[in-house]
Each structure stands twice: as structure tokens, then as C-alpha cells.
């Protein structure tokens, strides 16, 4: 049975990929990916065909709306105006031949990002008050074999161990998979000089090479929601697209673990 060498094995791998090399891996990184693939067998998830998935874009179209003759006086004589509408169907799908860098895909190699519910999809685009969000509902063409990084449902409650105190093999595995789940779900600010997405991109390519259709991971922006990223672009068809406007955003704050906390004023 494959075992992780350390409870902190993901972070050791991530440090190597971000700061040392990612196209030619060292033996420890290769071993890590091998164990990830073997232990993923316990986390296989079959998403049935005809399942509903959601995509959102922080964007909208403007379309001309005609004012009925009886209402034109109330509109100051205006006969038509531009009103916000949901984006057209092609705008809700990725380009086939290009892609910006993401947590699952490297630049230039597109994949499809979904959420399992509409609220999570809208939260993932990080909207602001008053902004419009186009939300697409899609249906899968076929059953998809996914690896669920959030299958353990640990809620980010990983214990931390010292370098000289390794836990049991089961606990090491639990920690590593939760660290990977956090890595996929953690919002990252893109930067030209920091390869924050590189570790999860390498993991995604490992899962793809292992025969999976995509990845499931927890959303840190949608409460209790899950995201899905599929490697194929033709796994789902667009059913409908609706427009929403943000009318409330709530933040919760917790003091960081420091010796003293400055007053928030």
C-alpha cells in the first residue's frame, strides 16, 4: 500500500515545484505524485450524465429594449433604451485555443471550471456590490470520473506535526489530501514572478494522465460549496443563462495568531 513519506509532503512538493524545477522533477516529487495517484482510488467520484453544473462570469451584455407607446410619456418620450442582459452563450464558455493561467490549467491550455450550485459559481468570480453576474446552467453529456480532493470533508482542520513526530500512515494521507484540497480552493492573486498555481497544475496533469475527467475541490468563497474542473471542454452543454445583481456582501474577520492585535478602526 502506497504511503506518503511525511504529513507535510504536499508543501515539500509545492516548494520544489514553485522555486526549483517543475518540468524535470526530483525523485521525491515523482514518488509523491505516484502516491497521490494511488491514494486517489479512495476518492473517485462518478458524476452521472445529465448532472447540472454552473458557471458564472462577472460580465453582462447590453441590449436595446423598446418602450411601449403608452409608457413613453413616463420615460420622458424615450422610445428605447439599453438594459443589462445575461451574456450570450459563447461568452459563458472558454476559448478552445487559449486560456489564462488557472489553479488547474497552465496558460494556453483551457479547461472548464464549474460549481455544483449557482451561489458558489457567483461567489467564485469575487463580485462587488452592485455588479452584474451572468450565470449559466449546464448539463453534462455523459458520466464523468472525477477525483474528489474534498472527499474527506475535514473542514480545514488539519493537525500540524513537528518534523520529528510523524503520525500514522492514515493520518499522513489525511493531512496531505486536505493540504491539496486547500491548495486547489485557495484564492490566489496572479503574479508574473510567483508560480503559485504551478503545484496544483502539476497535480491536475497527473490526474488527467491517470484517466480522470476532472477534479472536485472545496470552494473557499462559496459557503459549503464545491467546484469542479474538467479537462475536456465538451463534457457539458449550455441550458440557460440568467443575470443577477449583487445586493449584499458579508465578510467575517478573525484576529491572526500574533502576539498583539492592532485595533481595527
Structure description:
This protein has 265 residues and is of the alpha+beta class. 23% of the residues lie in helices and 23% in strands. The protein is built from five helices and ten strands; from the N terminus they run ααβββββαββααβββ. α1 (9-19) crosses α5 (198-209). The longest helix is centred in the last third of the chain and has 17 residues, at 169-185. The mean pLDDT is 88.
Helix and strand run: HHEEEEEHEEHHEEE
How much helix, percentage-wise, in residues?
A: 10-25%
Portion in beta strands: 15-25%
Output the strand order for the largest sheet: 1-7-8-9-5
Briefly note the structural class of the backbone.
alpha+beta
Q: How many individual β-strands?
A: 10
Largest sheet: 5 strands, mixed
The domain count comes to 1
As residue ranges, the low-confidence spans are none
Task: Please summarize what this structure is.
With 265 residues, the protein is an alpha+beta fold. It has helices spanning 9-19, 27-39, 118-124, 169-185, 198-209, and strands spanning 44-47, 52-57, 61-66, 80-85, 112-115, 132-140, 144-148, 214-218, 226-230, 236-245.
Amino acid at each position: 500500500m502506497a504511503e506518503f513519506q511525511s504529513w507535510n509532503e504536499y508543501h515539500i512538493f509545492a516548494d520544489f515545484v514553485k522555486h526549483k524545477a517543475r518540468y524535470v522533477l526530483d525523485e521525491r516529487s515523482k514518488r509523491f505524485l505516484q502516491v497521490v495517484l494511488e491514494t486517489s482510488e479512495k476518492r473517485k467520484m462518478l458524476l452521472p450524465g445529465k448532472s447540472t453544473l454552473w458557471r458564472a462570469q462577472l460580465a453582462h451584455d447590453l441590449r436595446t429594449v423598446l418602450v411601449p407607446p403608452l409608457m413613453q410619456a413616463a420615460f420622458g418620450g424615450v422610445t428605447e433604451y439599453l438594459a443589462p442582459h445575461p451574456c450570450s452563450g459563447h461568452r459563458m464558455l472558454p476559448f478552445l485555443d487559449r486560456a489564462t493561467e488557472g489553479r488547474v490549467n497552465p496558460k494556453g491550455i483551457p479547461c472548464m471550471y464549474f460549481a455544483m450550485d449557482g451561489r458558489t459559481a457567483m461567489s467564485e468570480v469575487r463580485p462587488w456590490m452592485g455588479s452584474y453576474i451572468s450565470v449559466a446552467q449546464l448539463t453534462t453529456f455523459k458520466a464523468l470520473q472525477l477525483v474528489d480532493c474534498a472527499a474527506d470533508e475535514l473542514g480545514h482542520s488539519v493537525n500540524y506535526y513537528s518534523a520529528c513526530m510523524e503520525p500514522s500512515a492514515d493520518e499522513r494521507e489525511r493531512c496531505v489530501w486536505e493540504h491539496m484540497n486547500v491548495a486547489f480552493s485557495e484564492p490566489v492573486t496572479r503574479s508574473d514572478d510567483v508560480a503559485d498555481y504551478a503545484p496544483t497544475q502539476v497535480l491536475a496533469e497527473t490526474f488527467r494522465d491517470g484517466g480522470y475527467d476532472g477534479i472536485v475541490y472545496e470552494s473557499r468563497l462559496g459557503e459549503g460549496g464545491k467546484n469542479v474542473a474538467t479537462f475536456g471542454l465538451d463534457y457539458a452543454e449550455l441550458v440557460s443563462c440568467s443575470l443577477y445583481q449583487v445586493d449584499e456582501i458579508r465578510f467575517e474577520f478573525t484576529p491572526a495568531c500574533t502576539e498583539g492585535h492592532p485595533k481595527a478602526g
